[in-house]
Design brief:
The structure is a single chain. This protein is an alpha/beta fold. The protein has two domains: about 100 residues, 3-Layer(aba) Sandwich (Rossmann fold), CATH 3.40.50.2300; about 160 residues, Rossmann fold. The chain contains ten helices and eight strands. Strand 5, helix 6 and strand 6 form a beta-alpha-beta unit. Helix 8 crosses helix 9. The protein is elongated, with a radius of gyration of 29 Å.
Length: about 270
C-alpha cells in the first residue's frame, strides 16, 4: 500500500511548511508520509494545478501562502475538490496583526531575504578580518572597498563597522618606507577610500597609544615631523590613485563610515 501524501504549497520555498509537517509526523510511531513540496507558486492557475495533483492521489495539503489572491484561489478550489487543507501561516499572521494593530506585508520570502542579509554580514566580517592591515594584498580585487591611510587613522574599526553593513572592506596601511602593493593601483579609484587627519590630532592619539602600551613617548611614531612626513606620503599615494579622501579628525567611526558609504553607493550607481 502506498504511503499517504502531504503536499506542501508555498509562494516562497516552502521550507516552513515542510518543517511543520515533519514536526507533526515525529509525534506518530512508525508513520511514513510522502511529503511533496511545491514551491514558488506565483499565480492562481499554478495553485489550481497543484491542488488537482493533490486530489488525484487523495493527498492532504499544508500551505504557507501569504498572497491573498493565491489563498483565496486555494480555499475555493480545495472546497470544490473536497481536499483536506491546513493553513500554517494564516492564523499566525492574524494573531500578530491583532496584537500589534498593524497589517502584514503579504510578501513571500521575506524571512529568506533576512537570512541572506545576515549571512552576507557574517561573510563581510570574516573578510574584514582576513584582509586587515594589508594582509594578502594580491586579493584586494575581491573587496567591495579598500581603505588606505597611515597608522591610527581608524582603518580597522572602519573596516569592521562597514562589514556590519554588509560591505567587504579591506584596509592597507601606508608607510613611507614600504611601497604600497601594486594591486592597489590596479583597482578602480571608486573602490578605494583614503583617510587623512590633522597632524596635531594624530600626534595626540599616538602619544596616548604609547602611554597605554607603557612605551616611551619620544619615539618617531609620536613625532610631529614624522607624522607630517607620513601624511604627505599618503596624500601622494591617494592623488596617484585618484580616490576620494575622508578627513577623520575628531570624527566618530560611525560618521566617517557614513561618508565612506556615500562614496561607495555613488560608485555603485
Amino acid at each position: 500500500m502506498d504511503c499517504p501524501v502531504v503536499y506542501v504549497l508555498s509562494d516562497s520555498i516552502g521550507e516552513t511548511g515542510e518543517l511543520v509537517v515533519k514536526a507533526a509526523i515525529s509525534q506518530f510511531n512508525s508513520v511514513k508520509i510522502d511529503i511533496r513540496r511545491i514551491p514558488f507558486l506565483n499565480s492562481p492557475h499554478e495553485v489550481e494545478d497543484a491542488l488537482l495533483e493533490a486530489a488525484a492521489c487523495s493527498g492532504a495539503v499544508i500551505y504557507t501562502l501569504v498572497r491573498p489572491d493565491l489563498k483565496e484561489t486555494l480555499k475555493t478550489k480545495s472546497q470544490e475538490l473536497a481536499l483536506n487543507c491546513v493553513d500554517v501561516m494564516g492564523p499566525i499572521l492574524e494573531t500578530i496583526k491583532s496584537v500589534t494593530q498593524t497589517s502584514p506585508r503579504y510578501e513571500p520570502g521575506l524571512i529568506r531575504k533576512t537570512d541572506e542579509a545576515y549571512f552576507n554580514k557574517i561573510e563581510a566580517i570574516d573578510f574584514a578580518v582576513k584582509y586587515d592591515d594589508g594582509k594578502q594584498p594580491w586579493e584586494l580585487a575581491k573587496a567591495d572597498l579598500v581603505i588606505i591611510g597611515i597608522s591610527r587613522t581608524s582603518k580597522t574599526p572602519l573596516s569592521m563597522y562597514l562589514a556590519y553593513k554588509g560591505v567587504k572592506a579591506a584596509n592597507v596601511p601606508l608607510i613611507p618606507e614600504v611601497a604600497p602593493p601594486t594591486e592597489l593601483f590596479e583597482l578602480p579609484p571608486r573602490k578605494v577610500v583614503g583617510l587623512t587627519v590633522s597632524p596635531d590630532h594624530l600626534f595626540a592619539v599616538r602619544r596616548e597609544r604609547l602611554k597605554t602600551l607603557g612605551l616611551a613617548e619620544n619615539v618617531d611614531y609620536a613625532n610631529i615631523d614624522r607624522i607630517t612626513e607620513e601624511l604627505h606620503f599618503a596624500e601622494r599615494i591617494m592623488r596617484r590613485i585618484g580616490c576620494p579622501v575622508v578627513n577623520v579628525t575628531s570624527k566618530a567611526v560611525e560618521e566617517t563610515a557614513a561618508n565612506i558609504l556615500e562614496y561607495y553607493r555613488k560608485g555603485a550607481e
